[in-house]
Specification:
Number of helices: 4
Number of domains: 1
Structural class: mainly alpha
Number of strands: 0
CATH topology: Helix Hairpins
Largest sheet: none
CATH class: Mainly Alpha
Distance between the termini: 126 Å
Length: about 200
């Protein structure tokens, strides 16, 4: 009796379980609502890391630009220094030439005066008789007076000739110096003009 009852209970339990499973399978399954996808954020462009070679190349490029700029500045400074030095030397030489030309003028004037004195002495030497008359030389001493006058004129002429020779040598030396200075000044003027044109040309670039 008990065994039969247990079997019936098991049978009913299995039947109930089967009905329950069938009912669950017959129900329509509603799909679970899918979560809305989140809006995609715009991704920032990924910058690739700079390689060692690229960094070194960039540094060398900047260094090269700086060197070029520095070289240009040094070139301009050297040209400006050369120009200023040329103009300074030119001014000094022009001042020196002015003083030299003044000395030449003074020497030439002095020599011209000596030449005039020489002409005057020679004129008196040629007219020595008139000179004796003007001096009122006595007849008895006329020959001695004439000889003394000729010796005096000769001494004067010799002194004049010595001064003329010295002055002529000085004039020649001064003239040589002046010629060298004029040539140097002309050379410097042309150089200064070239430097000025070159400076203007590079400034206008």
């Amino acid at each position: 009796m008990n065994t039969r009852y247990r079997l019936l209970m098991i049978f009913f339990t299995l039947m109930l379980w089967s009905f329950s499973v069938a009912a669950q399978q017959s129900k329509p399954r509603h799909p679970k609502p899918q979560a809305k996808p989140l809006p995609e954020e715009k991704a920032e462009p990924v910058v690739a890391p700079e390689s060692h070679e690229e960094a070194l190349r960039r540094v060398l490029s900047k260094l090269s630009e700086q060197i070029d700029t520095l070289a240009l500045e040094v070139k301009k400074m050297r040209q400006e220094t050369e120009r200023n030095s040329t103009l300074l030397e030119l001014a000094l030489l022009e001042e020196r030439l002015t003083r030299l030309e003044d000395k030449l003028d003074n020497a030439a004037t002095t020599k011209a005066n000596l030449d005039m004195q020489e002409v005057e002495v020679q004129r008196r030497q040629r007219n020595i008789q008139q000179e004796l008359t003007l001096r009122g030389a006595a007849a008895l001493r006329r020959d001695e007076t004439e000889a003394a006058l000729r010796q005096e004129f000769q001494r004067i002429l010799e002194s004049l000739h010595a001064q003329q020779s010295t002055l002529q040598t000085r004039i020649t030396d001064l003239q040589t110096q002046a010629d060298r200075l004029r040539f140097r000044i002309e050379t410097l003027r042309k150089k200064a003009d070239r430097l000025e044109l070159k400076n203007d040309s590079e400034t206008n670039k």
